[in-house]
Write a structure and sequence with these properties.
The chain is α/β, with parallel strands linked by helices and about 200 residues long. The protein has eight helices and six strands. A hairpin with a 6-residue loop joins strand 1 and strand 2. Helix 1 crosses helix 2 and helix 2 packs across helix 3. Bound molecules: zinc ion. The site of zinc ion has 8 residues, from helix 4.
């Protein structure tokens, strides 16, 4: 039996993506056992983020400042813009440190089933950034899903009129991927994107 407060904490943690009731209970036990090493730093970090959280008005990233730290970074290449569906995608690409340019978060994707209107996504913001010039290449880094690809196609049409290079992530075999573990979609994409042996 645990108190109402501990139950409330467990339930709040269990609602986080990637956690469930079982992981949440384990996390709570850990936090209670390691009060100084885990609970208090977590509390301070949550409070600091909650106090300063903001959405970047340029790119849609979530950060503790607006413009966000990526938009403010003078070392980044203004000529390259990478368009992603969600903030988590931006963070994943940024963690890889492979993309030197700036980002733009759509905040969703164009659905073929549910009718998401272009104005629901930050497409106008994207068009505005491209129209204001200085960008040579837009990388459409959508998910390799039907909806992601529909979004990419839609964006490519909207961006066609600008003198820029429009590129898309290659989809295919993941590094270290073994053929018999791949789903059919990935395998089909890899086969379609096949290239001559160098
Ligand atoms: Zn930003």
């Amino acid at each position: 039996m645990s108190s109402h407060q501990i139950d409330a904490l467990t339930q709040a943690l269990a609602r986080l993506p990637g956690l469930g009731p079982r992981s949440a209970r384990r996390a709570v036990v850990h936090l209670m056992k390691k009060r100084e090493a885990s609970l208090e730093p977590l509390l301070a970090a949550l409070q600091a983020v909650a106090d300063t959280l903001s959405t970047c008005s340029t790119c849609g990233n979530v950060d503790t400042s607006d413009p966000c730290s990526i938009c403010r970074d003078p070392r980044r290449d203004d000529r390259m813009l990478c368009v992603v569906e969600e903030v988590a995608d931006l963070w994943a690409l940024d963690r890889s440190r492979l993309f030197p340019g700036r980002f733009h978060v759509l905040g969703g994707r164009r659905s073929v089933h549910k009718k998401i209107r272009p104005e629901d996504l930050s497409i106008e913001g994207l068009i505005g950034r491209v129209a204001s010039g200085g960008i040579d290449e837009v990388v459409l880094a959508m998910n390799a899903t039907l909806e992601g690809q529909t979004t990419a196609h839609f964006l490519a049409e909207r961006l066609e009129k600008f003198p820029i290079r429009i590129t898309q992530l290659a989809h295919g075999l993941p590094v270290g991927g073994e053929l018999d573990y791949l789903d059919e979609g990935t395998l089909a994409q890899a086969l379609r994107a096949r290239r001559p042996v160098a």
